[in-house]
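This follows on from our talk about sequence and fold. I would like you to pick a protein and set down its sequence and fold. Go ahead and set the record down below:
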Amino acid sequence: MNSETQTAFLNKRTKTKIIGLGLLLGVSIGVLGFFLLSHLFNWNNVTNKSEDIDLGKTQNPSTSGIVINNSDYVNTIQVALGLTDGPDDLLEEFNPSDLRGIADLIFRAEQFEETIPTQTLRELVIAELVRFDPEVTLGIVEHLPPSEWSDTVSVIFSTWSSTDIEAALKATEQLSGNLRKVAVRAILRVKPNQLALIKKVASNQDVTHHLDEILQENAALEMLSSQPREAWRLITQDTVSNYLQEDLLHEILGVWMYQKGYSILDEIAASRQRFELFQLDAILVDVLQYRPDEAFQHVVSLPTEQKNWLLPIVFKAWARRDPQSAYDALGDVDRFDKTSIKRTIFREWSKVDPSGLMEQLDTFGRSYRSFAATVAISQLASQDPQFVQDQLPLWSEIPWVADNELKRAFVQSWARQSPEDAYRWLQENESEDSQEYAFMLDSVLSNLADDDPQRALEIALSQPETSRYLKEGWIFLDRLISAISLKGQVDLIIANFDKIPKNSQRSTVNTVARHLIEANRWDDAMQITEKMSDDLQKYYFGRFASHGSTHNVSELIDRLDSLPSDEVRLIVVQRTLASNEFARDVLTEQQLQHLQSLKDQLSESN
Protein backbone atom coordinates (compact mmCIF):
# COMPACT_ATOMS: atom_id res chain seq x y z
CA MET A 1 0.00 0.00 0.00
CA ASN A 2 1.57 3.31 -1.07
CA SER A 3 1.96 6.48 0.98
CA GLU A 4 -1.17 8.12 -0.43
CA THR A 5 -3.28 5.20 0.69
CA GLN A 6 -1.67 5.19 4.11
CA THR A 7 -2.20 8.91 4.50
CA ALA A 8 -5.86 8.63 3.52
CA PHE A 9 -6.48 5.90 6.08
CA LEU A 10 -4.56 7.74 8.79
CA ASN A 11 -6.23 11.09 8.11
CA LYS A 12 -9.64 9.52 8.49
CA ARG A 13 -8.64 7.81 11.72
CA THR A 14 -6.85 10.89 13.05
CA LYS A 15 -9.93 13.05 12.53
CA THR A 16 -12.02 10.53 14.45
CA LYS A 17 -9.49 10.51 17.29
CA ILE A 18 -9.37 14.31 17.41
CA ILE A 19 -13.12 14.56 17.76
CA GLY A 20 -13.09 11.93 20.49
CA LEU A 21 -10.22 13.70 22.24
CA GLY A 22 -12.06 16.99 22.15
CA LEU A 23 -15.10 15.43 23.76
CA LEU A 24 -13.03 13.71 26.44
CA LEU A 25 -11.26 16.97 27.20
CA GLY A 26 -14.64 18.60 27.46
CA VAL A 27 -15.65 15.90 29.93
CA SER A 28 -12.59 16.50 32.08
CA ILE A 29 -12.01 20.23 32.03
CA GLY A 30 -15.06 21.82 30.44
CA VAL A 31 -14.55 24.59 27.95
CA LEU A 32 -10.83 23.85 27.64
CA GLY A 33 -11.81 20.97 25.37
CA PHE A 34 -13.53 23.49 23.12
CA PHE A 35 -10.35 25.47 22.48
CA LEU A 36 -8.04 22.46 22.28
CA LEU A 37 -10.35 20.87 19.74
CA SER A 38 -10.30 24.10 17.76
CA HIS A 39 -6.50 24.13 17.82
CA LEU A 40 -6.26 20.49 16.73
CA PHE A 41 -8.45 21.29 13.74
CA ASN A 42 -5.90 23.97 12.65
CA TRP A 43 -8.12 26.88 13.59
CA ASN A 44 -4.98 28.99 13.90
CA ASN A 45 -6.69 32.12 15.07
CA VAL A 46 -7.84 30.44 18.25
CA THR A 47 -4.53 31.12 19.98
CA ASN A 48 -4.27 34.70 18.80
CA LYS A 49 -7.84 35.62 19.59
CA SER A 50 -8.12 33.91 22.95
CA GLU A 51 -4.81 34.61 24.66
CA ASP A 52 -6.59 36.67 27.28
CA ILE A 53 -9.09 33.95 28.09
CA ASP A 54 -8.74 31.89 31.24
CA LEU A 55 -9.28 28.53 29.56
CA GLY A 56 -9.81 26.68 32.77
CA LYS A 57 -13.14 28.25 33.55
CA THR A 58 -16.16 29.83 31.94
CA GLN A 59 -15.80 33.58 31.86
CA ASN A 60 -18.23 36.17 32.99
CA PRO A 61 -19.21 38.22 29.96
CA SER A 62 -19.17 41.40 31.96
CA THR A 63 -15.40 41.14 32.37
CA SER A 64 -14.47 39.52 29.08
CA GLY A 65 -14.78 42.59 26.90
CA ILE A 66 -17.67 41.06 24.96
CA VAL A 67 -21.17 42.17 25.82
CA ILE A 68 -24.14 39.86 25.20
CA ASN A 69 -27.56 41.25 26.02
CA ASN A 70 -29.64 39.21 28.43
CA SER A 71 -32.31 38.89 25.76
CA ASP A 72 -29.80 37.31 23.35
CA TYR A 73 -27.80 34.73 25.28
CA VAL A 74 -30.60 32.14 25.51
CA ASN A 75 -31.28 32.47 21.81
CA THR A 76 -27.55 32.12 21.06
CA ILE A 77 -27.45 28.77 22.86
CA GLN A 78 -30.68 27.56 21.29
CA VAL A 79 -29.34 28.31 17.82
CA ALA A 80 -26.08 26.48 18.60
CA LEU A 81 -28.09 23.47 19.75
CA GLY A 82 -30.44 23.59 16.77
CA LEU A 83 -33.41 24.36 19.02
CA THR A 84 -34.83 27.29 17.07
CA ASP A 85 -38.24 25.59 16.98
CA GLY A 86 -38.15 24.40 20.58
CA PRO A 87 -40.05 25.91 23.54
CA ASP A 88 -38.72 29.26 24.75
CA ASP A 89 -38.53 28.10 28.36
CA LEU A 90 -36.39 25.04 27.63
CA LEU A 91 -33.28 26.55 29.25
CA GLU A 92 -34.97 28.47 32.06
CA GLU A 93 -33.97 25.89 34.72
CA PHE A 94 -30.29 26.70 34.22
CA ASN A 95 -28.55 29.45 36.13
CA PRO A 96 -28.62 32.58 33.91
CA SER A 97 -24.97 33.38 34.67
CA ASP A 98 -23.92 29.90 33.47
CA LEU A 99 -25.87 30.37 30.26
CA ARG A 100 -24.32 33.79 29.67
CA GLY A 101 -20.87 32.25 30.03
CA ILE A 102 -21.64 29.59 27.43
CA ALA A 103 -23.15 32.19 25.09
CA ASP A 104 -19.98 34.28 25.46
CA LEU A 105 -17.83 31.35 24.36
CA ILE A 106 -20.12 30.64 21.41
CA PHE A 107 -19.81 34.29 20.38
CA ARG A 108 -16.01 34.09 20.60
CA ALA A 109 -16.00 30.90 18.51
CA GLU A 110 -17.97 32.69 15.81
CA GLN A 111 -15.15 35.25 15.50
CA PHE A 112 -12.65 32.63 14.31
CA GLU A 113 -11.80 32.77 10.63
CA GLU A 114 -12.35 29.02 10.30
CA THR A 115 -15.89 27.87 11.05
CA ILE A 116 -16.38 25.29 13.77
CA PRO A 117 -18.52 22.36 12.54
CA THR A 118 -22.11 22.66 13.73
CA GLN A 119 -22.19 19.19 15.26
CA THR A 120 -18.93 19.75 17.14
CA LEU A 121 -20.19 23.04 18.58
CA ARG A 122 -23.51 21.44 19.56
CA GLU A 123 -21.79 18.59 21.38
CA LEU A 124 -19.44 20.88 23.26
CA VAL A 125 -22.32 23.12 24.36
CA ILE A 126 -24.22 20.02 25.52
CA ALA A 127 -21.16 18.91 27.52
CA GLU A 128 -21.03 22.33 29.21
CA LEU A 129 -24.73 22.19 30.08
CA VAL A 130 -24.27 18.72 31.60
CA ARG A 131 -21.64 20.12 33.94
CA PHE A 132 -24.24 22.58 35.27
CA ASP A 133 -27.32 20.30 35.35
CA PRO A 134 -27.22 16.87 33.67
CA GLU A 135 -30.86 15.97 34.35
CA VAL A 136 -32.19 19.13 32.73
CA THR A 137 -29.78 18.67 29.82
CA LEU A 138 -31.13 15.17 29.24
CA GLY A 139 -34.57 16.70 28.83
CA ILE A 140 -33.29 18.73 25.88
CA VAL A 141 -32.70 15.59 23.77
CA GLU A 142 -36.34 15.04 22.77
CA HIS A 143 -36.46 18.55 21.28
CA LEU A 144 -33.55 17.86 18.94
CA PRO A 145 -33.94 16.19 15.53
CA PRO A 146 -34.10 12.39 16.02
CA SER A 147 -30.93 12.03 13.93
CA GLU A 148 -29.03 13.87 16.70
CA TRP A 149 -30.33 11.84 19.65
CA SER A 150 -27.67 9.13 19.74
CA ASP A 151 -24.69 11.49 19.55
CA THR A 152 -26.22 13.84 22.11
CA VAL A 153 -27.02 11.05 24.57
CA SER A 154 -23.46 9.77 24.19
CA VAL A 155 -22.04 13.20 25.08
CA ILE A 156 -24.41 13.63 28.02
CA PHE A 157 -23.59 10.31 29.65
CA SER A 158 -19.86 10.50 28.93
CA THR A 159 -19.76 13.85 30.71
CA TRP A 160 -22.19 12.91 33.48
CA SER A 161 -20.52 9.62 34.39
CA SER A 162 -17.13 11.30 34.79
CA THR A 163 -18.45 13.10 37.89
CA ASP A 164 -21.39 10.99 39.12
CA ILE A 165 -21.51 7.52 37.60
CA GLU A 166 -24.27 6.23 39.87
CA ALA A 167 -26.62 9.08 38.96
CA ALA A 168 -25.77 8.62 35.29
CA LEU A 169 -26.51 4.89 35.48
CA LYS A 170 -29.78 5.56 37.28
CA ALA A 171 -30.77 8.03 34.56
CA THR A 172 -30.37 5.41 31.82
CA GLU A 173 -33.64 3.92 33.05
CA GLN A 174 -35.47 6.89 31.45
CA LEU A 175 -34.26 5.98 27.97
CA SER A 176 -35.67 3.68 25.33
CA GLY A 177 -33.82 0.52 24.34
CA ASN A 178 -31.46 1.85 21.65
CA LEU A 179 -30.66 5.09 23.46
CA ARG A 180 -30.09 3.17 26.66
CA LYS A 181 -27.44 1.12 24.87
CA VAL A 182 -25.82 4.32 23.64
CA ALA A 183 -25.76 5.69 27.20
CA VAL A 184 -24.33 2.52 28.75
CA ARG A 185 -21.67 2.35 26.04
CA ALA A 186 -20.67 5.96 26.75
CA ILE A 187 -20.45 5.31 30.49
CA LEU A 188 -18.41 2.16 30.01
CA ARG A 189 -15.86 3.92 27.83
CA VAL A 190 -15.38 6.71 30.38
CA LYS A 191 -15.45 4.40 33.43
CA PRO A 192 -14.18 0.96 32.35
CA ASN A 193 -13.00 0.30 35.90
CA GLN A 194 -16.61 0.45 37.13
CA LEU A 195 -17.70 -2.62 35.20
CA ALA A 196 -19.10 -4.41 38.25
CA LEU A 197 -21.39 -1.49 39.07
CA ILE A 198 -22.43 -1.14 35.41
CA LYS A 199 -23.22 -4.87 35.22
CA LYS A 200 -25.37 -4.62 38.35
CA VAL A 201 -27.40 -1.77 36.91
CA ALA A 202 -27.68 -3.55 33.55
CA SER A 203 -29.01 -6.64 35.32
CA ASN A 204 -31.60 -4.60 37.23
CA GLN A 205 -32.75 -2.99 33.97
CA ASP A 206 -32.80 -6.31 32.10
CA VAL A 207 -30.32 -5.08 29.50
CA THR A 208 -27.50 -7.51 30.28
CA HIS A 209 -27.47 -8.76 26.68
CA HIS A 210 -26.91 -5.20 25.47
CA LEU A 211 -23.99 -4.83 27.86
CA ASP A 212 -22.47 -8.09 26.60
CA GLU A 213 -22.59 -6.71 23.05
CA ILE A 214 -20.92 -3.49 24.16
CA LEU A 215 -18.19 -5.41 25.99
CA GLN A 216 -17.52 -7.41 22.85
CA GLU A 217 -17.28 -4.17 20.89
CA ASN A 218 -14.72 -2.85 23.39
CA ALA A 219 -12.73 -6.07 23.14
CA ALA A 220 -12.58 -5.69 19.37
CA LEU A 221 -11.41 -2.09 19.68
CA GLU A 222 -8.72 -2.99 22.21
CA MET A 223 -7.14 -5.56 19.90
CA LEU A 224 -7.68 -3.47 16.77
CA SER A 225 -4.24 -1.88 16.40
CA SER A 226 -2.20 -4.97 17.31
CA GLN A 227 -4.44 -7.79 16.09
CA PRO A 228 -6.87 -6.56 13.44
CA ARG A 229 -7.44 -10.08 12.13
CA GLU A 230 -8.58 -11.23 15.56
CA ALA A 231 -10.76 -8.13 15.86
CA TRP A 232 -12.33 -9.07 12.51
CA ARG A 233 -13.01 -12.61 13.64
CA LEU A 234 -14.53 -11.40 16.89
CA ILE A 235 -16.84 -8.89 15.23
CA THR A 236 -18.04 -11.39 12.63
CA GLN A 237 -19.24 -13.85 15.25
CA ASP A 238 -22.98 -14.38 15.36
CA THR A 239 -23.12 -13.06 18.93
CA VAL A 240 -22.35 -9.54 17.80
CA SER A 241 -25.36 -7.53 16.66
CA ASN A 242 -25.58 -5.96 13.22
CA TYR A 243 -25.84 -2.57 14.89
CA LEU A 244 -22.40 -3.00 16.47
CA GLN A 245 -20.96 -4.65 13.37
CA GLU A 246 -21.72 -1.64 11.21
CA ASP A 247 -20.27 0.68 13.83
CA LEU A 248 -16.94 -1.16 13.88
CA LEU A 249 -16.36 -2.74 10.50
CA HIS A 250 -15.18 0.48 8.84
CA GLU A 251 -12.60 0.92 11.59
CA ILE A 252 -11.40 -2.68 11.58
CA LEU A 253 -11.15 -3.03 7.81
CA GLY A 254 -9.37 0.30 7.49
CA VAL A 255 -6.68 -0.58 10.04
CA TRP A 256 -6.31 -4.14 8.81
CA MET A 257 -5.97 -3.07 5.18
CA TYR A 258 -3.48 -0.37 6.16
CA GLN A 259 -1.34 -2.99 7.88
CA LYS A 260 -1.67 -5.94 5.51
CA GLY A 261 -2.72 -4.48 2.17
CA TYR A 262 -5.31 -5.84 -0.22
CA SER A 263 -4.45 -9.46 0.45
CA ILE A 264 -6.98 -9.35 3.28
CA LEU A 265 -9.75 -9.29 0.65
CA ASP A 266 -9.32 -13.05 0.26
CA GLU A 267 -10.23 -13.62 3.91
CA ILE A 268 -13.01 -11.04 3.82
CA ALA A 269 -14.56 -12.78 0.81
CA ALA A 270 -14.56 -16.05 2.69
CA SER A 271 -16.54 -14.45 5.56
CA ARG A 272 -19.12 -12.54 3.54
CA GLN A 273 -21.92 -15.06 4.05
CA ARG A 274 -22.05 -14.05 7.72
CA PHE A 275 -23.39 -10.62 6.84
CA GLU A 276 -26.75 -9.38 5.70
CA LEU A 277 -27.14 -8.88 1.96
CA PHE A 278 -25.08 -5.89 0.75
CA GLN A 279 -24.06 -4.87 4.29
CA LEU A 280 -20.38 -5.71 3.78
CA ASP A 281 -20.45 -4.49 0.18
CA ALA A 282 -21.29 -0.91 1.21
CA ILE A 283 -18.55 -0.85 3.84
CA LEU A 284 -15.94 -2.13 1.40
CA VAL A 285 -16.89 0.51 -1.15
CA ASP A 286 -16.01 3.17 1.41
CA VAL A 287 -12.76 1.52 2.47
CA LEU A 288 -11.51 0.70 -1.05
CA GLN A 289 -11.99 4.08 -2.65
CA TYR A 290 -8.63 5.42 -1.47
CA ARG A 291 -6.61 3.37 -3.99
CA PRO A 292 -9.10 1.30 -5.96
CA ASP A 293 -6.63 0.78 -8.81
CA GLU A 294 -4.40 -1.24 -6.47
CA ALA A 295 -7.40 -3.17 -5.18
CA PHE A 296 -8.38 -3.93 -8.78
CA GLN A 297 -4.96 -5.41 -9.58
CA HIS A 298 -5.32 -7.79 -6.65
CA VAL A 299 -8.96 -8.73 -7.25
CA VAL A 300 -8.51 -9.74 -10.90
CA SER A 301 -6.05 -12.40 -9.74
CA LEU A 302 -8.51 -14.05 -7.35
CA PRO A 303 -10.53 -17.20 -8.04
CA THR A 304 -13.69 -16.66 -10.09
CA GLU A 305 -16.19 -16.76 -7.22
CA GLN A 306 -14.33 -14.17 -5.14
CA LYS A 307 -13.59 -12.03 -8.20
CA ASN A 308 -17.24 -12.01 -9.24
CA TRP A 309 -18.23 -10.68 -5.83
CA LEU A 310 -15.45 -8.12 -5.39
CA LEU A 311 -15.17 -6.61 -8.88
CA PRO A 312 -18.49 -4.69 -8.73
CA ILE A 313 -17.48 -3.36 -5.30
CA VAL A 314 -14.07 -2.23 -6.51
CA PHE A 315 -15.47 -0.51 -9.58
CA LYS A 316 -18.12 1.30 -7.55
CA ALA A 317 -15.40 2.57 -5.21
CA TRP A 318 -13.20 3.48 -8.16
CA ALA A 319 -15.99 5.34 -9.95
CA ARG A 320 -16.48 7.55 -6.90
CA ARG A 321 -12.85 8.61 -7.07
CA ASP A 322 -12.02 8.53 -10.79
CA PRO A 323 -14.91 7.34 -12.98
CA GLN A 324 -13.06 7.73 -16.28
CA SER A 325 -10.21 5.49 -15.12
CA ALA A 326 -12.69 2.98 -13.74
CA TYR A 327 -14.53 2.85 -17.06
CA ASP A 328 -11.27 2.45 -18.99
CA ALA A 329 -10.04 -0.32 -16.68
CA LEU A 330 -13.24 -2.29 -17.15
CA GLY A 331 -12.13 -2.95 -20.72
CA ASP A 332 -9.28 -5.06 -19.35
CA VAL A 333 -11.63 -7.48 -17.62
CA ASP A 334 -12.30 -10.73 -19.52
CA ARG A 335 -15.14 -13.23 -19.22
CA PHE A 336 -17.34 -11.10 -16.99
CA ASP A 337 -20.81 -9.59 -17.41
CA LYS A 338 -19.99 -5.90 -17.52
CA THR A 339 -23.50 -4.53 -17.97
CA SER A 340 -24.33 -3.95 -14.31
CA ILE A 341 -20.83 -2.61 -13.57
CA LYS A 342 -21.05 -0.09 -16.40
CA ARG A 343 -24.38 1.12 -15.08
CA THR A 344 -22.87 1.44 -11.60
CA ILE A 345 -19.96 3.44 -12.98
CA PHE A 346 -22.34 5.75 -14.83
CA ARG A 347 -24.43 6.31 -11.70
CA GLU A 348 -21.39 7.21 -9.61
CA TRP A 349 -19.94 9.28 -12.45
CA SER A 350 -23.13 11.30 -12.65
CA LYS A 351 -22.80 12.17 -8.96
CA VAL A 352 -19.22 13.46 -9.15
CA ASP A 353 -19.10 14.92 -12.67
CA PRO A 354 -22.38 14.83 -14.62
CA SER A 355 -21.15 17.32 -17.22
CA GLY A 356 -18.05 15.23 -17.86
CA LEU A 357 -20.22 12.16 -18.27
CA MET A 358 -22.34 13.91 -20.91
CA GLU A 359 -19.20 14.96 -22.77
CA GLN A 360 -18.12 11.33 -23.06
CA LEU A 361 -21.46 9.93 -24.29
CA ASP A 362 -20.35 9.26 -27.85
CA THR A 363 -17.42 7.16 -26.58
CA PHE A 364 -19.72 4.65 -24.90
CA GLY A 365 -21.32 1.63 -26.51
CA ARG A 366 -24.60 2.34 -28.23
CA SER A 367 -26.70 0.36 -25.76
CA TYR A 368 -25.38 2.38 -22.78
CA ARG A 369 -25.62 5.92 -24.07
CA SER A 370 -29.22 6.61 -23.12
CA PHE A 371 -28.72 5.21 -19.62
CA ALA A 372 -25.60 7.31 -19.04
CA ALA A 373 -27.35 10.39 -20.38
CA THR A 374 -30.43 9.99 -18.19
CA VAL A 375 -28.50 9.56 -14.93
CA ALA A 376 -26.33 12.56 -15.80
CA ILE A 377 -29.33 14.73 -16.70
CA SER A 378 -31.05 13.77 -13.46
CA GLN A 379 -28.12 15.23 -11.55
CA LEU A 380 -27.71 18.26 -13.77
CA ALA A 381 -31.40 19.13 -13.58
CA SER A 382 -31.22 19.22 -9.81
CA GLN A 383 -28.32 21.70 -10.05
CA ASP A 384 -29.22 23.89 -13.04
CA PRO A 385 -32.50 23.12 -14.82
CA GLN A 386 -32.11 26.08 -17.18
CA PHE A 387 -28.79 24.71 -18.45
CA VAL A 388 -30.41 21.35 -19.15
CA GLN A 389 -33.26 23.04 -21.02
CA ASP A 390 -30.76 24.83 -23.23
CA GLN A 391 -28.73 21.69 -23.91
CA LEU A 392 -31.53 19.18 -24.48
CA PRO A 393 -31.79 19.84 -28.24
CA LEU A 394 -28.04 19.27 -28.68
CA TRP A 395 -27.93 16.14 -26.54
CA SER A 396 -30.90 14.67 -28.38
CA GLU A 397 -28.85 14.71 -31.59
CA ILE A 398 -26.22 12.33 -30.18
CA PRO A 399 -26.65 8.99 -31.99
CA TRP A 400 -28.34 6.24 -29.97
CA VAL A 401 -29.53 8.62 -27.26
CA ALA A 402 -33.31 8.42 -26.87
CA ASP A 403 -34.87 11.89 -26.85
CA ASN A 404 -37.93 10.76 -24.85
CA GLU A 405 -35.76 9.24 -22.12
CA LEU A 406 -33.76 12.46 -21.78
CA LYS A 407 -36.89 14.56 -21.39
CA ARG A 408 -38.42 12.15 -18.93
CA ALA A 409 -35.27 12.13 -16.76
CA PHE A 410 -35.14 15.93 -16.88
CA VAL A 411 -38.76 16.42 -15.82
CA GLN A 412 -38.61 13.77 -13.10
CA SER A 413 -35.58 15.40 -11.52
CA TRP A 414 -36.84 18.98 -11.87
CA ALA A 415 -40.25 18.05 -10.49
CA ARG A 416 -38.67 17.02 -7.19
CA GLN A 417 -37.58 20.62 -6.66
CA SER A 418 -40.15 22.69 -8.53
CA PRO A 419 -43.13 20.73 -9.85
CA GLU A 420 -44.99 23.85 -11.01
CA ASP A 421 -42.03 24.97 -13.15
CA ALA A 422 -41.66 21.47 -14.55
CA TYR A 423 -45.36 21.44 -15.39
CA ARG A 424 -45.11 24.73 -17.28
CA TRP A 425 -42.18 23.39 -19.31
CA LEU A 426 -44.14 20.23 -20.03
CA GLN A 427 -47.14 22.20 -21.31
CA GLU A 428 -44.94 24.26 -23.60
CA ASN A 429 -42.87 21.43 -25.02
CA GLU A 430 -45.00 18.28 -25.22
CA SER A 431 -48.34 17.33 -26.75
CA GLU A 432 -51.02 16.69 -24.12
CA ASP A 433 -52.21 13.66 -26.10
CA SER A 434 -48.84 11.87 -26.07
CA GLN A 435 -47.81 8.95 -23.92
CA GLU A 436 -44.64 10.77 -22.90
CA TYR A 437 -46.66 13.73 -21.67
CA ALA A 438 -48.72 11.38 -19.51
CA PHE A 439 -45.63 9.76 -17.97
CA MET A 440 -43.97 13.09 -17.27
CA LEU A 441 -47.18 14.62 -15.88
CA ASP A 442 -47.42 11.65 -13.55
CA SER A 443 -43.97 12.51 -12.12
CA VAL A 444 -44.88 16.17 -11.77
CA LEU A 445 -48.15 15.55 -9.96
CA SER A 446 -46.79 12.88 -7.62
CA ASN A 447 -44.23 15.43 -6.40
CA LEU A 448 -46.70 18.30 -6.29
CA ALA A 449 -49.12 16.19 -4.24
CA ASP A 450 -46.58 16.02 -1.41
CA ASP A 451 -46.98 19.75 -0.71
CA ASP A 452 -50.21 20.76 -2.44
CA PRO A 453 -52.55 17.81 -3.09
CA GLN A 454 -55.43 20.11 -4.05
CA ARG A 455 -53.39 21.75 -6.80
CA ALA A 456 -52.15 18.35 -8.00
CA LEU A 457 -55.72 17.03 -8.32
CA GLU A 458 -56.84 20.26 -9.96
CA ILE A 459 -54.19 19.91 -12.67
CA ALA A 460 -54.95 16.23 -13.16
CA LEU A 461 -58.68 16.77 -13.62
CA SER A 462 -58.14 19.75 -15.93
CA GLN A 463 -56.50 17.61 -18.60
CA PRO A 464 -58.47 17.30 -21.85
CA GLU A 465 -60.52 14.15 -22.44
CA THR A 466 -58.10 13.17 -25.19
CA SER A 467 -55.20 13.14 -22.71
CA ARG A 468 -53.53 9.78 -22.27
CA TYR A 469 -53.20 10.71 -18.60
CA LEU A 470 -56.99 10.47 -18.21
CA LYS A 471 -57.70 7.85 -20.86
CA GLU A 472 -55.23 5.49 -19.15
CA GLY A 473 -56.32 6.44 -15.67
CA TRP A 474 -55.56 3.01 -14.20
CA ILE A 475 -51.89 3.84 -14.77
CA PHE A 476 -51.83 7.51 -13.85
CA LEU A 477 -54.85 9.20 -12.25
CA ASP A 478 -55.74 6.24 -10.04
CA ARG A 479 -52.26 6.28 -8.56
CA LEU A 480 -52.49 9.99 -7.79
CA ILE A 481 -55.89 9.56 -6.10
CA SER A 482 -54.52 6.74 -3.96
CA ALA A 483 -51.49 8.83 -2.97
CA ILE A 484 -53.65 11.82 -2.03
CA SER A 485 -55.92 9.61 0.08
CA LEU A 486 -52.92 8.13 1.87
CA LYS A 487 -52.00 11.66 2.92
CA GLY A 488 -55.33 11.93 4.76
CA GLN A 489 -57.01 13.95 2.01
CA VAL A 490 -59.90 11.61 1.20
CA ASP A 491 -62.40 14.48 1.59
CA LEU A 492 -60.65 16.27 -1.26
CA ILE A 493 -61.29 13.23 -3.45
CA ILE A 494 -64.95 13.07 -2.39
CA ALA A 495 -65.44 16.77 -3.13
CA ASN A 496 -64.14 16.31 -6.66
CA PHE A 497 -65.76 12.96 -7.39
CA ASP A 498 -68.14 14.35 -10.01
CA LYS A 499 -65.11 15.47 -12.08
CA ILE A 500 -63.39 12.10 -12.09
CA PRO A 501 -63.58 10.30 -15.46
CA LYS A 502 -65.82 7.24 -15.61
CA ASN A 503 -62.91 4.86 -16.23
CA SER A 504 -61.36 5.84 -12.89
CA GLN A 505 -64.49 5.91 -10.76
CA ARG A 506 -64.40 2.30 -9.60
CA SER A 507 -60.84 2.57 -8.41
CA THR A 508 -61.69 5.86 -6.73
CA VAL A 509 -64.70 4.57 -4.78
CA ASN A 510 -62.66 1.59 -3.65
CA THR A 511 -59.99 3.95 -2.33
CA VAL A 512 -62.59 6.17 -0.65
CA ALA A 513 -64.38 3.23 0.99
CA ARG A 514 -61.15 1.86 2.40
CA HIS A 515 -59.95 5.14 3.87
CA LEU A 516 -63.30 6.14 5.36
CA ILE A 517 -63.76 2.78 7.06
CA GLU A 518 -60.17 2.67 8.33
CA ALA A 519 -60.82 6.13 9.83
CA ASN A 520 -64.06 4.80 11.43
CA ARG A 521 -66.12 7.29 9.44
CA TRP A 522 -68.97 4.85 8.87
CA ASP A 523 -71.68 7.48 8.54
CA ASP A 524 -69.75 9.25 5.79
CA ALA A 525 -69.06 5.94 4.08
CA MET A 526 -72.80 5.21 4.01
CA GLN A 527 -73.84 8.64 2.71
CA ILE A 528 -71.48 9.35 -0.19
CA THR A 529 -73.32 7.04 -2.61
CA GLU A 530 -76.27 9.36 -3.23
CA LYS A 531 -74.90 10.74 -6.51
CA MET A 532 -73.56 7.43 -7.79
CA SER A 533 -75.16 5.48 -10.61
CA ASP A 534 -76.87 2.20 -9.64
CA ASP A 535 -74.07 0.08 -11.04
CA LEU A 536 -71.35 2.13 -9.35
CA GLN A 537 -73.29 2.12 -6.09
CA LYS A 538 -73.47 -1.68 -6.16
CA TYR A 539 -69.77 -1.90 -6.83
CA TYR A 540 -69.06 0.59 -4.05
CA PHE A 541 -70.98 -1.37 -1.44
CA GLY A 542 -69.18 -4.54 -2.46
CA ARG A 543 -65.89 -2.82 -1.66
CA PHE A 544 -67.50 -1.27 1.45
CA ALA A 545 -68.27 -4.81 2.67
CA SER A 546 -64.80 -6.14 1.89
CA HIS A 547 -63.05 -3.35 3.78
CA GLY A 548 -65.61 -3.24 6.57
CA SER A 549 -65.50 -7.00 7.23
CA THR A 550 -61.75 -6.96 7.77
CA HIS A 551 -61.70 -3.69 9.76
CA ASN A 552 -64.73 -4.04 12.06
CA VAL A 553 -67.20 -6.71 11.05
CA SER A 554 -69.46 -6.11 14.06
CA GLU A 555 -69.95 -2.48 13.04
CA LEU A 556 -70.60 -3.59 9.49
CA ILE A 557 -73.33 -6.01 10.59
CA ASP A 558 -74.92 -3.32 12.75
CA ARG A 559 -75.15 -1.09 9.66
CA LEU A 560 -77.01 -3.61 7.48
CA ASP A 561 -80.47 -2.23 8.23
CA SER A 562 -79.33 1.27 7.15
CA LEU A 563 -78.31 0.22 3.65
CA PRO A 564 -80.34 1.78 0.80
CA SER A 565 -82.01 -1.40 -0.51
CA ASP A 566 -82.36 -5.16 -0.08
CA GLU A 567 -80.36 -5.64 -3.24
CA VAL A 568 -77.44 -3.71 -1.76
CA ARG A 569 -77.92 -5.50 1.56
CA LEU A 570 -77.60 -8.86 -0.20
CA ILE A 571 -74.39 -7.71 -1.92
CA VAL A 572 -72.89 -6.70 1.43
CA VAL A 573 -73.94 -9.95 3.13
CA GLN A 574 -72.55 -12.08 0.29
CA ARG A 575 -69.26 -10.21 0.24
CA THR A 576 -68.90 -10.45 4.02
CA LEU A 577 -69.49 -14.20 3.90
CA ALA A 578 -66.93 -14.46 1.10
CA SER A 579 -64.41 -12.54 3.21
CA ASN A 580 -65.01 -14.94 6.08
CA GLU A 581 -64.49 -17.88 3.75
CA PHE A 582 -61.22 -16.40 2.62
CA ALA A 583 -59.90 -15.24 6.02
CA ARG A 584 -61.61 -17.93 8.17
CA ASP A 585 -61.60 -15.85 11.34
CA VAL A 586 -63.66 -12.78 10.41
CA LEU A 587 -67.01 -13.92 11.84
CA THR A 588 -67.99 -15.56 15.09
CA GLU A 589 -70.19 -18.65 14.80
CA GLN A 590 -73.25 -16.62 15.83
CA GLN A 591 -72.52 -13.91 13.24
CA LEU A 592 -71.96 -16.53 10.57
CA GLN A 593 -75.32 -18.19 11.22
CA HIS A 594 -77.09 -14.82 11.28
CA LEU A 595 -75.63 -13.74 7.92
CA GLN A 596 -76.29 -17.09 6.26
CA SER A 597 -79.92 -16.88 7.36
CA LEU A 598 -80.17 -13.27 6.16
CA LYS A 599 -78.63 -14.22 2.83
CA ASP A 600 -81.31 -16.89 2.28
CA GLN A 601 -84.10 -14.42 3.12
CA LEU A 602 -82.74 -11.70 0.85
CA SER A 603 -82.13 -14.11 -2.02
CA GLU A 604 -85.77 -15.20 -1.94
CA SER A 605 -87.05 -11.61 -1.94
CA ASN A 606 -84.74 -10.64 -4.81
User: Anything to note?
Assistant: Confidence is low (pLDDT under 50) at residues 1-68. The two ends are 86 Å apart (CA to CA). The first helix runs from residue 3 to 29.
